[in-house]
C-alpha cells in the first residue's frame, strides 16, 4: 500500500456524482481490487464452514472418528484463513476509506486555494465547512462499502450454488428470496436520498449562521443583538433537527429491514429444510448446514442493505463536492513577465508611482476596496504593472509581488511567530522592527511566551485593534514589491494611529506603498494623495494641497471630525 496522502490526487471526473465516485474508485483500483479479493475469500471461507460442520455432524452420526478429525482439521484451517483474510480485508477497507477521503480533502483544499476570493462569493462558509465535517467521510465510506459489498454478493451467489447443488427447492428459495428482499428495500432509497440532501443543505446553512455569529460576537454584544441571533440560530437548529428526524425515520426502517428480512429468510429456509429432513430427503447434517447457511446469509444481506445507505450518502456528498470543484475562479493568470514600475488602474485612473508612499482617499469605502481588489488581481480589470498587463502575469507572481492587506485577513491557530513570519525567514530583530512600526510590541510583551505564544483560531484573545496591528506587522514582514493597505489604522486610537503613520512612512521609504484611508493623520504622511469619488480619480496632490483646493476631498477626510 502507498503512503497517504498521495502527491498528486489527479484530475477528477465532475460530470456527475456517480462518475466522481467511479473516478475515485479507479484511482485506487489496485488496493480496491485487492480488498475485494480478500473480502470475497473472507466471505467464501465462512460460506464453506456450514458445509464442513454438516460433514462433521454426519461423521459423528456415523461414528467415523477419522472423518471427524479430518473435517475438524479442515474447519480449523478455514478458521485460520478466515482470520487472515478478515484482517487483510479490514486493512484494505480502511485504506480505501482513507485514500478516498484524503483525495477529496486534497482536491477541495487545492480548489479553495485556487479560487481564493472567489470561493466566499459563490458558497457560504457553512457549505464549505460541511464538506470537511461530513461529506468527506461519506465519500470514504462509499469506497469501504464497495469493497465489502462486492464480497457479500459473491458470498450470496456461492451459498445459492451450494444450496441448489444439495437441494434444488432450497436453492431456488434463496435464489429468489434474496432479490425480492433487496427489491423490498428499493422504494426506501429515493426518499432517503431526497431527505439526506435536504438535511445536508440545512446543516450547511446552520454552519454558516454559526460562523457568522462567532465572527461578529463582539459586535452583537455591543449592540445587544445576542438574544435575537440566538433565537434565529435556535429556530434554524430545530429545522435541522426535524430534517434529521425525517432522515432517521427512513434509516430506522432500513435498520429494521436488516434484521427482519434475513430473519424471514432464515425461518423459511429452516422450516422447509426441516420438512425435507423429516421426509428423509436430506440428512441431519445437511439440515444443520442449511440452518447455518440461512444464519450466515444475515451478514452479507445486512452488508447489502448498508451498502444502499452508504452509497446514497456518498452520492449526496459527491454532489456537494462537485459543486465546489466545478467553480471557476473569477481571475486567472498568464505566463507573462514584468520588471515592475508604475501600477495603474485604468478604470479609476489610480496611478501608484514606484518607490512612493501613495494614499487613496475614497468618498465611499466600496470604491477603495474595488480599486485595491483590481490592483491586487482579486477582481478582473485593466491594470498595468510597468509596461505589462497585470492579467498576463502568473497569479503566483502577482501574489508575491503585490500584497493587498485588508481587515478581512485572519489570524490562524498556531505560534504567533509563525503567524507573523509566514515564510519562516525573518529574524527576531526583523519581527521586532515590524511590530514596532505597527505599534504592536506591547501586545507581544503581554503574552506569557512572547512570540512563541499560541494564538487561537481567529486571534480571539486579541481585541479588534490588536488584531489590526498584528495584521499590519505581518504585511510588513512579507516585504512585497507593492504593499496595498486597506484602512490599516481604522480600529486604533488617534495616538497610536499617528505613531503608526510616522513609522510606516519611514519603514517603507523607497518601497511602493498604497494606503487606502480617510484618516488625516495618515494622509498627511503620504508623498502623494489621490481622491476617488464614484469610482474615478477626482483630484491628486498632497494632503494639504487637496484640503485647500478640493472641497469634495475636504468633506471626505474631515466628516468624521465635524
TrEMBL record:
Record keywords: Electron transport included? no
Q: Which organism is it from?
A: Nonomuraea aridisoli
Q: What is this protein called?
A: Multidrug ABC transporter permease
- What's a single GO CC term here? plasma membrane
The membrane topology noted for this protein in its Swiss-Prot or TrEMBL record is: Multi-pass membrane protein
Q: What is the lineage of its organism?
A: Bacteria, Bacillati, Actinomycetota, Actinomycetes, Streptosporangiales
Give the matching PANTHER family.
ATP-BINDING CASSETTE SUB-FAMILY B MEMBER 10, MITOCHONDRIAL (PTHR43394:SF1), ATP-DEPENDENT PERMEASE MDL1, MITOCHONDRIAL (PTHR43394)
The record's keywords, sorted A to Z, are:
Membrane, Transmembrane, Transmembrane helix
Domain ABC transmembrane type-1 positions? 33-313
Q: Which InterPro entries match?
A: ABC1_TM_dom, ABC1_TM_sf, ABC_transporter-like_ATP-bd, ABC_transporter-like_CS, P-loop_NTPase, Type_1_exporter
Domain ABC transporter residues, every copy: 322-559
Primary subcellular site in the record, as a coarse category:
membrane
Please give the start and end residues of each transmembrane region.
Answer: 29-48, 68-88, 145-164, 170-189, 259-279, 285-304
Q: One MF term from GO for this chain?
A: ATP binding
Compartments where located: Cell membrane
Amino acid at each position: 500500500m502507498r503512503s497517504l496522502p498521495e502527491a498528486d490526487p489527479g484530475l477528477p471526473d465532475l460530470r456527475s456524482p456517480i462518475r466522481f465516485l467511479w473516478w475515485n474508485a479507479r484511482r485506487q483500483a489496485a488496493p480496491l481490487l485487492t480488498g475485494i479479493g480478500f473480502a470475497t475469500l473472507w466471505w467464501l471461507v465462512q460460506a464453506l464452514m456450514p458445509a464442513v460442520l454438516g460433514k462433521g455432524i454426519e461423521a459423528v452420526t456415523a461414528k467415523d472418528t477419522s472423518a471427524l478429525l479430518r473435517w475438524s482439521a479442515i474447519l480449523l484451517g478455514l478458521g485460520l484463513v478466515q482470520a487472515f483474510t478478515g484482517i487483510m480485508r479490514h486493512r484494505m477497507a480502511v485504506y480505501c476509506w482513507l485514500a478516498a477521503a484524503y483525495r477529496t480533502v486534497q482536491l477541495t483544499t487545492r480548489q479553495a486555494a485556487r479560487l481564493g476570493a472567489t470561493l466566499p462569493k459563490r458558497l457560504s462558509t457553512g457549505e464549505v465547512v460541511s464538506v470537511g465535517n461530513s461529506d468527506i467521510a461519506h465519500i470514504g465510506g462509499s469506497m469501504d462499502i464497495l469493497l465489502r459489498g462486492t464480497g457479500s454478493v459473491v458470498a450470496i451467489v456461492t451459498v445459492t450454488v451450494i444450496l441448489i447443488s444439495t437441494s434444488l427447492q432450497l436453492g431456488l428459495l434463496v435464489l429468489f428470496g434474496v432479490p425480492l428482499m433487496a427489491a423490498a428495500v428499493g422504494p426506501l432509497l429515493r426518499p432517503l436520498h431526497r431527505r439526506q440532501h435536504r438535511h445536508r443543505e440545512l446543516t450547511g446553512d446552520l454552519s454558516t449562521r454559526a460562523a457568522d455569529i462567532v465572527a461578529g460576537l463582539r459586535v452583537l454584544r455591543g449592540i445587544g443583538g445576542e438574544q435575537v441571533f440566538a433565537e434565529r440560530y435556535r429556530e434554524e437548529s430545530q429545522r435541522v433537527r426535524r430534517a434529521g428526524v425525517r432522515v432517521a425515520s427512513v434509516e430506522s426502517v432500513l435498520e429494521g429491514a436488516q434484521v427482519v428480512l434475513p430473519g424471514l429468510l432464515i425461518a423459511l429456509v429452516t422450516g422447509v429444510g426441516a420438512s425435507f429432513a423429516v421426509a428423509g430427503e436430506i440428512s441431519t447434517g445437511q439440515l444443520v448446514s442449511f440452518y447455518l447457511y440461512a444464519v450466515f446469509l444475515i451478514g452479507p444481506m445486512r452488508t447489502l442493505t448498508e451498502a444502499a445507505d452508504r452509497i446514497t450518502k456518498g452520492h449526496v456528498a459527491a454532489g456537494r463536492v462537485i459543486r465546489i470543484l466545478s467553480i471557476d475562479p473569477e481571475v486567472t493568470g498568464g505566463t507573462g513577465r514584468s520588471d515592475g514600475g508604475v501600477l495603474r488602474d485604468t478604470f479609476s485612473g489610480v496611478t501608484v508611482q514606484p518607490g512612493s508612499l501613495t494614499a487613496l482617499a475614497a468618498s465611499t469605502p466600496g470604491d477603495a476596496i474595488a480599486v485595491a481588489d483590481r490592483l491586487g488581481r482579486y477582481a478582473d480589470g485593466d491594470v498595468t504593472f510597468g509596461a505589462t498587463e497585470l492579467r498576463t502575469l502568473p497569479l503566483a507572481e502577482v501574489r508575491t509581488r503585490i500584497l493587498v492587506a485588508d481587515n478581512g485577513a485572519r489570524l490562524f491557530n498556531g505560534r504567533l511567530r509563525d503567524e507573523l513570519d509566514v515564510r519562516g525567514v525573518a529574524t527576531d530583530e526583523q519581527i521586532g522592527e515590524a511590530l514596532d512600526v505597527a505599534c504592536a510590541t506591547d501586545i507581544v510583551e503581554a503574552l506569557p511566551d512572547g512570540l512563541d505564544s499560541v494564538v487561537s483560531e481567529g486571534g480571539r484573545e486579541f481585541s479588534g485593534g490588536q488584531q489590526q496591528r498584528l495584521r499590519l506587522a505581518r504585511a510588513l514582514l512579507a516585504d512585497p514589491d507593492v504593499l496595498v493597505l486597506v484602512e490599516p489604522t481604522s480600529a486604533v486610537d488617534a495616538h497610536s494611529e499617528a505613531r503608526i503613520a510616522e513609522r510606516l512612512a519611514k519603514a517603507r521609504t523607497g518601497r511602493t506603498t498604497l494606503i487606502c484611508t480617510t484618516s488625516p493623520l495618515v494622509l498627511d504622511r503620504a508623498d502623494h494623495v489621490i481622491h476617488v469619488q464614484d469610482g474615478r480619480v477626482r483630484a491628486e496632490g498632497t494632503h494639504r494641497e487637496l484640503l485647500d483646493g478640493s472641497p469634495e476631498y475636504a468633506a471626505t477626510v474631515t466628516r468624521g471630525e465635524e
